[in-house]
Amino acid sequence: xxxxxxxxxxxxxxxxxxxxxxxxxxxxxxxxxxxxxxxxxxxxxxxxxxxxxxxxxxxxxxxxxxxxxxxxxxxxxxxxxxxxxxxxxxxxxxxxxxxxxxxxxxxxxxxxxxxxxxxxxxxxxxxxxxxxxxxxxxxxxxxxxxxxxxxxxxxxxxxxxxxxxxxxxxxxxxxxxxxxxxxxxxxxxxxxxxxxxxxxxxxxxxxxxxxxxxxxxxxxxxxxxxxxxxxxxxxxxxxxxxxxxxxxxxxxxxxxxxxxxxxxxxxxxxxxxxxxxxxxxxxxxxxxxxxxxxxxxxxxxxxxxxxxxxxx
Length: 312
Description:
This protein has helices at residues 3-29, 41-44, 65-81, 99-104, 113-124, 132-146, 158-178, 186-207, 215-226, 230-238, 243-256, 259-265, 269-273, 276-300, 305-311; strands at 35-40, 55-60, 97-98, 127-130. The chain has 312 residues and is mainly alpha-helical. Strands 3-2-1-4 form a 4-stranded mixed β-sheet, with helices on both faces. It is globular.
């Protein structure tokens, strides 16, 4: 199957699921202005496969965590009742978050791993379920924080790029912690080397070329680019030159859509790492990384400020 067909297929599946989630939300939550409900993960990136679960998040506009948590429980139960696969309880998105925490805390000791994760995923892949207008306003407010009024128009949006780089390095380091105690290693490592790397690369692409623009134009460019999926950003930036990388990525999406592949990768510890499925995808991951590196070095060039920021 051509990679374009694979990508089109997962995108259409994702759009259908998003529409279903919005319908259930409209019925269960109504038109609540005090909440923003969104989704991250493969669904938000338009890469939904058969094994994907739904990574919901709730934000509160008025700081009423208790009310937001009750709404979250109600909505989650409604989705489970219609057969939507939800992640296990717990995790970084378990609790609703006040919008102020998402927007105001960037850097410093209060910027925890949880806040970095929630902020970066909101920007780089998040999609709305409830309260679209406010969702987009929050994205614009975040971009305004990263692109301050006095930023020299000749400079790229380095503050944002540094946070994207920091997030990528954080999840790479955290991998070792998350697989301790015999937990499945293979599935996490393959996702890190494909979907997480795609997310990171899509963030780098969003920032590239924001030099030589006015502050208003920098902000508008980021708003436009970050409203697209990582795959769309890469296609828009590189055109057919991205075909090799996307062909490999489509192979990953096809494989991860297979029940037998996911079962093999979900095996604990070194068992999953020794599976044929892991070895195949691990080899593909090396090729995928090589193709992304070619795009950066051949298209951006070594003198590009984005490349220099990644290196130093």
